[in-house]
């Protein structure tokens, strides 16, 4: 199983591949306990082999991006939404501002340093003196600020905005199109200086960590893109064809939807790249196993799925690495629309999936424990909340989630008036009208197909006529294009997955004004709980933990977005690769790698 994810791009991507968007806790070994996974893999491959004479200037690190669709090709982390785009442009460094420790806490030493002043309610970001883009341009204070403009512009195609950004003074006015600038972001040394001060109405405890939903974590090359309207930036040559980066590698070539190739960036401020060439190619989930067995690739750009693990766990010439994934799968229900005039999601009380009993019944009808026992291979297991267990402090391990309970599912449907009438095989809605529920699912491998069929069969058992949207699974880009429309009636319930932030606040996913809130669930309590996660009281971590657990149980009860699976991210590493380490603290992931020979082992 390898359901592809949307990604909080600047949130989840540091200077590493997206497999590294997980936590390593206190050691380089994943615990494998207390989170549903039985695996205990190392986050690094300790290769002590000597480098032979064949490893020369022509040697190429070969990376596979396992995906069943072409990548979209949006290199800008502010504008990218699919994890695949983040994967194929990862050697460029993700344009990330900060270094982090093993727990994703921001530390000094990256492109910039950060200082939080609780009393003054400011965050000061100071760039290093030798910060340059891969074309030799200086990185400036304006490059920090411009990222916020691209995120929040009224005409942006970015999906990253949420109400948390309104803590920045002047941001709400800019987002609404009532101001041309963001008044709360200032430049003590001018736009071409190296310092930005962000003035806030509140300072949140989450700001100490990368991936928080208040302080954006990447830069934009303002001088390079300033003449492109923000609304057209995602389709521009500066983003699609000739992007520039701040990381250890510069882009040599992109073949649309298929591959990217890289060579060392001579302007990089950090450790110089040791490998002279990198190629990243899309490989379908049906072909990835054979490709690794045939030794066509050194590593994968993101964690592989459970089916691949079963087939590759003993493959010769490769080490296995991994850790609990900073991601989760979920079932989303379409309960509203996005109002483009107000910029807010709106619940539609008359929508097909508006009835909570119906949503809960559909979840109780599923036998997810059995599905993942059969297909999970220790890599995936039934999720019990919408906070993955990698966040051990905030994840509610005691939450039940949705275990199979056909009796309860039928009772909920009966009580809500979804009944079989006139001898019909299927239940009709409470008004006696025919009920057909359209299920959206992305095309994947044979395991994914078997899982989807199981879901349909289980829903049919409780008398619900659930059918694939359009009669079949959907290509990934088409799937998300449909869901991200402001209003759509083609998909009623869907299987999705998030590659999430390294800070667990879910405002950007489920906030009232979050573009990523594709099911459009909104409630006063949901909004209040998410605000409380970062209130002044939340500096007390016991209180913050309590709020996170209350939110998880509230979302489970509402079942507008319901947990599907948690996962363990793993990747094969060829024995010729040296210095491979996906722990979060290894922010020089690409620079630390080298090759011991010209050919895969």
Query: Portion of residues in helices?
Result: 10-25%
If you compute it from the alpha carbons, what radius of gyration comes out, rounded to the nearest whole angstrom? Answer: 24 Å
**Contiguous uncertain segments of 5+ residues:** 7-34
| Largest sheet data | 7 strands, mixed
Number of helices: 17
Anisotropy-based shape: globular
Strand pairing plus helix content: what structural class? alpha+beta
Count every beta strand, where a strand is a DSSP E run of 2 or more residues: 26
Q: Termini distance?
A: 27 Å
Strand content: 15-25%
Mean pLDDT: 92
Family: Belongs to the bacterial solute-binding protein 5 family.
Region (Disordered): 24-58
Keywords: Signal, Transport
Domain Solute-binding protein family: 110-511
Can you characterise this structure?
- Residues 110-511 form the Solute-binding protein family domain.
- InterPro entries: Peptide/Ni-bd, SBP_5, SBP_5_dom.
- GO terms for molecular function: peptide transmembrane transporter activity.
- This is Peptide ABC transporter substrate-binding protein.
- Residues 1-20 form the signal peptide.
- Helices cover 22% and strands 20% of the residues.
- By secondary structure, the chain is α+β, with helices and mostly antiparallel strands.
- Strand 6 and strand 7 (122-127) form a beta hairpin.
- The strands form 8 sheets. Strands 1, 14, 17, 20, 21, 22 and 23 form a 7-stranded mixed β-sheet that branches. The protein has a 5-stranded mixed β-sheet with strand order 10-11-12-3-13. It has a 4-stranded antiparallel β-sheet with strand order 6-7-9-8, covered by helices on one side.
- Helix 15 packs antiparallel against helix 16 (541-558).
């Amino acid at each position: 199983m390898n359901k592809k994810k949307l990604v909080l791009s600047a949130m989840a991507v540091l200077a590493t591949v997206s497999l590294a968007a997980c936590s390593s806790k206190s050691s380089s070994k994943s615990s494998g306990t207390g989170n549903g996974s039985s695996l205990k893999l190392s986050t690094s491959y300790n290769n002590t082999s000597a480098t032979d004479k064949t490893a020369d200037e022509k040697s190429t690190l070969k990376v596979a991006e396992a995906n069943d669709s072409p990548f979209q090709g949006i290199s800008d982390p502010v504008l990218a939404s699919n994890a695949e785009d983040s994967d194929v442009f990862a050697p460029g460094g993700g344009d990330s501002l900060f270094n982090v420790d093993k727990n994703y806490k921001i530390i000094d030493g990256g492109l910039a340093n950060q200082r939080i002043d609780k009393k003054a309610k400011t965050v000061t970001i100071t760039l290093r003196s030798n910060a340059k883009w891969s074309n030799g341009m200086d990185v400036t204070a304006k490059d920090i600020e411009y990222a916020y403009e691209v995120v929040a512009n009224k005409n942006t195609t970015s999906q990253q905005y949420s109400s948390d950004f309104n803590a920045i003074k002047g941001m709400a006015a800019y987002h609404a199109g009532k101001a041309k600038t963001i008044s709360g972001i200032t430049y003590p040394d001018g736009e071409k200086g190296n310092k930005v001060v962000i003035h806030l109405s509140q300072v949140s405890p989450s700001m100490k960590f990368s991936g928080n939903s208040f302080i954006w974590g990447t830069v934009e090359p303002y001088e390079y893109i300033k003449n492109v309207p923000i609304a057209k930036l995602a389709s521009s040559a500066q983003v699609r064809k000739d992007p520039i980066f701040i990381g250890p590698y510069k882009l040599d070539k992109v073949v649309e939807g298929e591959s990217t190739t890289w060579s060392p960036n001579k302007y990089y401020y950090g450790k110089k790249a040791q490998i002279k060439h990198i190629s990243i190619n899309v490989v379908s989930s049906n072909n990835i196993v054979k490709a690794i067995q045939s030794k066509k690739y050194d590593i994968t750009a993101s964690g592989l799925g459970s089916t691949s693990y079963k087939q590759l766990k003993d493959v010769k010439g490769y080490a296995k690495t991994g850790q609990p994934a900073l991601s989760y799968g979920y079932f989303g229900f379409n309960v509203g629309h996005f109002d483009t005039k107000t910029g807010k999601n709106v619940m539609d009380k008359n929508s097909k999936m508006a009835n909570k009993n119906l949503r809960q019944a559909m979840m109780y009808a599923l036998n997810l424990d059995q599905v993942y026992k059969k297909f999970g291979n220790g890599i995936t297991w039934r999720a019990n909340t919408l906070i993955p267990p990698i966040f051990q402090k905030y994840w509610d391990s005691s939450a039940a989630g949705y275990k199979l309970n056909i009796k309860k599912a039928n009772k909920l449907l009966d009580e809500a008036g979804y009944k079989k009438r006139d001898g019909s095989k299927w239940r009709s809605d409470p008004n006696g009208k025919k009920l057909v529920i359209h299920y959206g699912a992305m095309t994947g491998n044979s395991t994914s197909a078997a899982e989807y069929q199981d879901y349909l069969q289980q829903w049919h058992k409780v008398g619900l006529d659930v059918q694939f949207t359009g009669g079949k699974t959907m290509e990934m880009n088409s799937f998300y294009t449909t869901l991200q429309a402001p209003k759509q009636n083609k998909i009623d319930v869907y299987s999705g997955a998030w590659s999430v932030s390294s800070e667990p606040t879910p405002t950007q996913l489920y906030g009232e004004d979050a573009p990523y809130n594709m099911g459009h669930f909104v409630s006063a309590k949901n909004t209040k709980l998410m605000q409380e996660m970062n209130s002044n009281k939340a500096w007390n971590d016991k209180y913050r933990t309590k709020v996170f657990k209350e939110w998880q149980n509230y979302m489970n009860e509402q079942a507008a977005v319901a947990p599907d699976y948690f996962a363990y991210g793993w990747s094969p590493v060829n024995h010729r690769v040296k210095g491979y380490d996906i722990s979060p603290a290894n922010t020089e992931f690409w620079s630390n790698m080298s090759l011991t020979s010209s050919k895969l082992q």
